[in-house]
Amino acid sequence: MARHGSLLALVLMGVMLAVAGAEEHAAELPRPLVIQLPSSTTEKTAADEAEAEARCASWRVAVEANNVLPWSAVPAECAAHVRRYVTGPAYRSDLELVAREASAYARSLAASASDRAADAWVFDVDETLLSNLPYYADHGYGLELFDHREFDRWVEKGEAPAIPSSLKLYKEVRDLGFKTFLLTGRSEGHQGVTVDNLKKQGFHDWDRLILRAAADRTKTATAYKSEKRKEMEAEGYKILGNSGDQWSDLLGYSMSARSFKLPNPMYYIP
Amino acid sequence: MARHGSLLALVLMGVMLAVAGAEEHAAELPRPLVIQLPSSTTEKTAADEAEAEARCASWRVAVEANNVLPWSAVPAECAAHVRRYVTGPAYRSDLELVAREASAYARSLAASASDRAADAWVFDVDETLLSNLPYYADHGYGLELFDHREFDRWVEKGEAPAIPSSLKLYKEVRDLGFKTFLLTGRSEGHQGVTVDNLKKQGFHDWDRLILRAAADRTKTATAYKSEKRKEMEAEGYKILGNSGDQWSDLLGYSMSARSFKLPNPMYYIP
């Protein structure tokens, strides 16, 4: 009820501001009795808020459909929207739906072929298998520009939790007999802590964990990951599934037969 | 307030149903005094509704990110969600944001190059330039399976309205000097009515309108549209932008430098 009360207050304030605004264009009308609250010039009206919410919902969907690029930080007006999304049930629901679609696809492949020895599934790590939400909670959920040093310090703690729906998918894909290749933008310097973090969170028995070598540091993620996928193909593997939270995990060349884009409105990697 | 009243009724009914359900597993407990309303067995609880809403929102975003495929009709539980979306402000907001991103990209290209003679932008027609919402309003907004004959009768009326944000983008892209190629899955038999419909809605001066020939009828849209884009490239055109509501408008080969996926939760074309 408290929320409805403050909404009502916002609506009333909106009406007051609208009257005040209209007056600018109609000086002949008597000045209405408007109590000017201290913050009324910067206060947003309920209509403004609703419009911003619609724009931010549109922005988030457009990011997921790869319509917005490049972007360096969450738009300021969408900071609260993104925070609510990633800390609320919608993010979890979105992650779960993508995992279910990937699982159904993996099972359909397993049902139609007997020999899985060459079949591979690629998983990204950050925001795909492991979640860095605890880090982003301290950094505005993507509102702040990305700080490599700060993030590296977080990675070195090895405390990123598993994304539960991804852990379930990972285990299922392994149990179905797919080779599992973990392909991450993390640098080779983080190998030890990444292995420990993954194992502590229940990820085991991957076939390969590929980290970014010094020579790959200046490449875009799209180029680096495409090269690595091409190497897998050259070794005879068929990449049938690819799960990642960035389009740069999925696009480029040597693309997977099917790609699964996990939601991520907090950052963009080219 | 009436909505809050019925919400309260739904919550109360939910509690009653939960109690009734629990009783099945605990026969030793005394039967609670539950007034059985006539519709109580089919009535959904508020929690059920909220969960279905979350699932449908996730489904819609997953469709936009190309995570769900193929699908033949909107999931039954999402019929109301999709109807509300396409008839409400969110669909318009999503369309407008994608058009703004496309426009910014087109202007950035125009600013960085002087000769635009070979630069091309591809537009799909249905649910991209023209809207078939009046047709889908009569057919459950995608809940019904697609009926070719019915849809053809609608197309022959030539009354599909323009999508306003797409009309604005179309004009801007033309004004910036791009060649505009309209590439549609409509068959050549609909050429006359399609030209009339487009012109009546304000679309003029396209460089080419490509419809599906008899020989293309059995091809997927992805294959048909890729072939046509390849022909454009063979003629020397550089496809820099591509706007479509289906991933099959955008993926395949001879892909555009950038693609813009307009929202469409009503149908899927492979």
Automatic annotation (TrEMBL), chains A, B:
InterPro entries: Acid_phosphat_B-like, Acid_phosphatase_pln, APS1/VSP, HAD-like_sf, HAD_sf. It holds the Pfam family Acid_phosphat_B. CDD domains: HAD_VSP. Keywords: Glycoprotein, Signal. SUPFAM superfamilies: HAD-like. One of its GO terms (molecular function) is acid phosphatase activity. It comes from the Eukaryota. Transmembrane segments: none annotated. Residues 1-22 form the signal peptide. Belongs to the APS1/VSP family. This is Acid phosphatase. It comes from Brachypodium distachyon (Purple false brome).
